[in-house]
C-alpha cells in the first residue's frame, strides 16, 4: 500500500534503509509505493481497476487514446500553431486557441490513464508523461506539453504496429481458418454420393462434431482434422509446418485442419473437434508462449517498476537541489531554464519506456518459429536454449525415418544388381519381379522396401497364386511369369541386420560423437550416412544423460518420445518431432517440430541465440537513449519537446530492432552454421537400454 511521508529528509524504503538528507526547510510530500505487494494491496488495485471498468473510465481512456484519427488531428493542430504565425503573421492571435483545442483531445485519455494507475499504486511511463505534460502547461509551456503528449501517443501507435507485426503470423493463421464448414447430409456409406452434386449444409466450424463428413472444394481450407473419405486433391500446409512442397492426399490419408486444397474435391471425415484440431492447437500454444514471460522479461518488469519510482525521486531532487547547488532558478526566467523545467526533462527522458518494450523480441521470434512449424511451450525455452551447448539425438525415428530401403539385390549365382541401374531382361530382373509380386501381399517391414525398389523399373509381369506367409520363415507362392513359365518357389526372409533410412535432411560437416549402437553394421551405416567422424562406446540412456550434464552442462534432447520419455524429461530442453510422437512426449516437450525433419533443431537454437542477442542490443539502446536525452536535459541544453523526441525515437528504435527477429539468421541455410557461436557443440546418439551393453564406470565419456 502507498505510504505518505511528510519529512524534510526523504526516506526511501524501496531503495535503501538509510536517509537522504536534503538541506531545505520546505516540507516535502512524497508518495512512495513498495514493490512488495501484499494481499490487501492487490485486492485494492483490482477493485480500483474493476470500478474503472464498470464506470467506463478505462474503456473511454483506451478507445480515446488509441484512436489514431484523434492523435493525428491533435498533432496537426499543434504543428499548425507552430507554423501558422510564420506564414500568416495575423494568425498569432489564434495560437492559444489551437493549442488549447489540441491538448484536451490527447490530454484527457492520458490523464484518465494516469489517474487509474496512480490510484492502483502503479507509477509507470504513462504517469510520468502525463505529469510532465500537465506541469508544462501550468508553467506556461502549453505547446511543449501538447507536443509531449502527441509524440508519446504517436510512438505508442507505432509500438502497437510493431507488436501486431510480431504476432502477425498467429493472426494470419486465424484469418485463414474458415468460420464455417460444408457438412454433408446423411448418406449410405456403401454408396458415397457423386462429388459433383453432394448435398450439404453450412455449419459453424466450432460446431462440427467428430465423425462428420465435410466437403472441401478446390481453393478452400480444411476446417478440422480428419481423414480423406473420398476424393483426391493436392494440398499445402506451408502455413502450418513451414513445408512449402504440395502434398497429394487421397482416400485414407490424414489431413490436418488448416490445410489448403489447391485442386480437386474431397470428402473429409472429421476425427477431432475444432478446439483440438491442429490449427487451433498451433494458435493456442503460440498465444500462450507470447503471453508467457521469460526470466529476463520478468526481471525487466520488476526493475522498471522500481526504476520509475527512482525517476520520480531523482526528478524531485533535481528540482529542489538545482537552485541550491547550481544556482539555477526554480522557474525558467531570462532565457535560463529553471530547475523544475530540467526536472521535467529528466522525468521524460529517464522514463523506462524503451526498456519496457525490449522483450518484444520474444513475441517476435515465437511468431517466426510458428511460421516454420515450430511450437514452443513457454518463453523460458529461449533462455534455456541459449544456455545449452550440447545436443543429444535419439537415432531411431529421429535421425532415421524408421523405414527400410532396398539398396541392392544379390542373386544366388553371385551377380550383383545395383539400385542405381535399371534391370536387364535376365534372371536378376525376374528375381526382383517375383520378389516384389510376392511382397505386395506381405506385412513384413522389408516388404514395402522391396516393392518400392521395384517401382519405375522395366520388369517382367508376374502373377501370384496360393500366397502363404509363414511366420519366422518367409513367403511361399506359385508364381507365373509373362512368358508362361510356372514355378513354385519358397522365398524366405532371414534376420539380416538392417538400419533404417536416414533422414533426407541429414546435416553436412556435423561434428558427431556417437554414444550408441546395438549392431556394428547398423552403427557404421548411420555413421556413413551422417558423416560421423568421432566415435564413443555405447551407453545406456540415464548414465549417458548424467555424464553429459557433468561434462557439458545444458543439454538439448531430440526425440520422438518412443521409449524416450524419461530422457526427454531429464534434459534441459526437450525437442520432439510431433508427427509420430507419443502423447507423453508431446505433453513434456518444450519444443514441438510439426514438420518431421530435424532441420528445425539448429533453426530454433539459432533463433534462441539471435533473440538473446537482440534483447541485449535493445537494452543497450534503451539505456543509451536515456543517457543521451537525460544528461542534456538536466544541463538545460534540450527543450522538453526535443527530449521527448529523442526518448520516443529510442523506443521506436528498440521496437524496430526487436522485429528483426522475424528474419532468419543469414547462415541458417546451412543448419549447423548458426551454431558457430557456441563454445562447443557435441551431438550424441542414443538407443534403448536393451540393445546396449553395461555402461562403464568412467566419469567421462571417452572420445
TrEMBL record:
Domain P-type ATPase A residue range list: 201-286
Membrane topology note: Multi-pass membrane protein
Entry-linked SUPFAM superfamilies: Calcium ATPase, transduction domain A, Calcium ATPase, transmembrane domain M, HAD-like
GO molecular function term, any single one: metal ion binding
Pfam family, one: E1-E2_ATPase
Source organism superkingdom: Eukaryota
Localization annotation: Membrane
Record GO cellular component, one term: membrane
Record's keyword terms, sorted: ATP-binding, Magnesium, Membrane, Metal-binding, Nucleotide-binding, Translocase, Transmembrane, Transmembrane helix
Keyword Repeat in record: no
Transmembrane segments: 12-33, 68-88, 97-116, 128-152, 306-326, 346-370, 619-642
Record bears the keyword Aminoacyl-tRNA synthetase: no
Family: Belongs to the cation transport ATPase (P-type) (TC 3.A.3) family. Type IB subfamily.
Protein name: P-type ATPase A domain-containing protein
